[in-house]
Amino acid sequence: MNKAVLPTDPATLPVVTEESILIFDLDNTLYPSSCDLFSQVSVLIKKYVSDYLGMPPEQAFLIQKEYFRRYGTTLRGLMLEHKVDPADYLHKVHDIDLSVIAPSPVLSNALKSLPCRKVIFTNASRGHASRVMERLGIADHFETIFDIVDAEYVPKPEQQPYDKLLARDGIDPKRAIYFEDMAKNLLPAKDMGMTTVWVHSDSDWAHEGRDDPRIDHETDNLPAFLEMLAQRAAR
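The chain above was modelled as a monomer; its predicted structure follows.
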């Protein structure tokens, strides 16, 4: 991802003020999807399902994908179907190597240039989010994390986590800009009044909904897009 996808008219970009709130998904949004962290997580999920249900890895993988398709996350399927302990699951499946993510001073500087509230909104765990943010060198720029536990294990794009995020953190959706690599996760946010930005992903499954008119902007270079917002705010 080397070139920002710019709007036809830069004047269509939202104007960020001190009252704005920037909401960011975590994985494949704040770092490039080419880091492929999910392949590591997927291997650990398959192992967890195999060990917990006592079945061969090949069968566990089919269960893993079926629960993801039916329930939005494999975890939610395991909780509903097998009463799995979510804390144990989240601890084990996020025990991954983050060295594939390079620190990003460019992203850090771009975030710093926008002096407004910034929050993380993720289907992953708070611990995983914190480790990724520390690795990127951007943790100091965010006031809070809203994770899958805060959402009571109901994943995006279901409506409940969006409602809970806004209520917990006192967010006015009309002042919010939401950045997300999974296009379909932007749609409920737009319906609530947020400005939406699709961050391009190499993963085909992240493209569902990409042509929906509720996506306001798109980019394949998040730091560059944030720098454009900062330049517009400074005018």
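The first strand starts at residue 21 and ends at 24.
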